């Protein structure tokens, strides 16, 4: 039997268990009862009786290790996720085997989007823009092409307000409201579109302080489930240099990463790494093709940023060079950008974060245009996919006081 057949058999078996349980609960509690994320007694008993849950741990670990090593890119990574969804024992061992993106260079579970990217190399993604609905979708490429079908990662929706603009970021492309269980953060701009703040809905490190903004106070129980600890934790501040006279040249931007210490870009440096989402409705969202997490644990070795008052990481855009023949400003995007645009940028660590320029030459995030509504986004350690996406969204916003 092939592995795909085995996975399909497991899905069918546990799918029938789940459907039987749901029918039983609907007969008992009526159609209006809310969906319960926890596994019921009937489901638990059925899982314990399943042959898949009774595999010897040594054999199970060997099988899962081989599967994890053989499945590198999406969509094949879905087999690893499927294994984690079989039962509790499978999930526990899969979580132990799958390494964070920093070490593996792979995105597997939803929490991977909040974890720093790989140290060696970059994760190559792209963003699709829908002008009509003012929505933006982040995908990770499945091939070496600039853009393909891709694996969906995150979505954002632009919300205009009288004095600012919000970009709500979600794990679900069909529901990008702040009251959604899949809401994970937002980007907020000032009126001029020159200053932005990235907010995480979950604490990025131990001791993180929630912002006391007006938006945090107006969210009521009717909008957000009591089980979802939605908050506004500032993780980055982005500013664009004022250019009211429209001087020739690209935009100049500066990013202060509140949740990342400056030492993270140095050899042996560490950035805070979230390991699981807080207990929330993510447990009951079947549309997210990742497995569920239960608690909000953060790597304790890197979670003392607030108490140590360590210097924060500062990113700035890499200075382009003027090309006399082309008569334009140029950056080396290594084939990942094909269309000239004022939105294109590369971010490196500021000189403030180190005595030498060795680290500052390493591009941490690059963003550029490859089509009318198509943009590439490549990122690496110490920032995450969520932070990178939010920073790139700031480039889309209208900037009254900046050229372009």
UniProtKB/TrEMBL annotation:
It holds the Pfam family Tub. SUPFAM superfamilies: F-box domain (SSF81383), Tubby C-terminal domain-like (SSF54518). Residues 113-398 form the Tubby C-terminal domain. InterPro entries: F-box-like_dom_sf (IPR036047), Tubby-like_C (IPR025659), Tubby_C (IPR000007), Tubby_C_CS (IPR018066). It comes from the Eukaryota. Belongs to the TUB family. This is Tubby C-terminal domain-containing protein.
């Amino acid at each position: 039997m092939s592995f795909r057949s085995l996975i399909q058999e497991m899905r069918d078996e546990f799918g029938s268990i789940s459907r039987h349980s749901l029918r039983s609960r609907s007969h008992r509690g009526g159609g209006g009862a809310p969906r319960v994320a926890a596994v019921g007694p009937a489901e638990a008993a059925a899982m314990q009786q399943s042959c898949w849950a009774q595999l010897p741990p040594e054999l199970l670990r060997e099988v899962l290790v081989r599967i994890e090593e053989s499945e590198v890119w999406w969509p094949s990574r879905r087999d690893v996720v499927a294994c984690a969804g079989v039962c509790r024992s499978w999930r526990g061992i899969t979580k132990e085997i799958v390494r964070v993106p920093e070490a593996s260079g792979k995105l597997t579970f939803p929490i991977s989007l909040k974890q720093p990217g790989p140290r060696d190399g970059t994760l190559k993604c792209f963003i699709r823009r829908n002008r009509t609905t003012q929505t933006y979708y982040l995908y990770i490429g499945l091939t070496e092409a600039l853009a393909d079908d891709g694996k969906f990662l995150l979505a954002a929706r632009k919300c205009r307000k009288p004095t600012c603009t919000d970009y709500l970021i979600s794990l679900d492309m069909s529901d990008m409201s702040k009251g959604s269980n899949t809401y994970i953060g937002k980007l907020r701009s000032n009126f001029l579109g020159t200053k932005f703040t990235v907010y995480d809905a979950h604490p990025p490190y131990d001791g993180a302080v929630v912002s006391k903004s007006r938006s945090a106070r107006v969210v009521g129980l009717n909008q957000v489930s009591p089980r979802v600890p939605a908050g506004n934790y500032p993780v980055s501040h982005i500013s664009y240099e004022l250019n009211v006279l429209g001087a020739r040249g690209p935009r100049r931007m500066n990013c202060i990463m509140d949740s990342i210490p400056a030492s993270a870009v140095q050899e042996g440096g560490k950035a805070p790494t979230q390991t699981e989402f807080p207990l929330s409705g993510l447990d009951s969202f079947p549309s997210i093709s990742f497995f569920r997490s239960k608690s909000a644990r953060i790597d304790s070795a890197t979670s003392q940023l607030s108490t140590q008052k360590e210097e924060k990481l500062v990113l700035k855009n890499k200075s382009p060079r003027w090309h006399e023949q082309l008569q334009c400003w140029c950056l080396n995007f290594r084939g990942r950008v094909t269309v000239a645009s004022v939105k294109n940028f590369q971010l490196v660590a500021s000189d403030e974060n180190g005595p030498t320029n060795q680290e500052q030459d390493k591009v941490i995030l690059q963003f550029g245009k490859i089509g009318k509504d198509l943009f590439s986004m490549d990122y690496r350690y110490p920032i995450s996919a969520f932070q990178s996406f939010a920073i790139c969204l700031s480039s889309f916003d209208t900037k009254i006081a900046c050229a372009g």
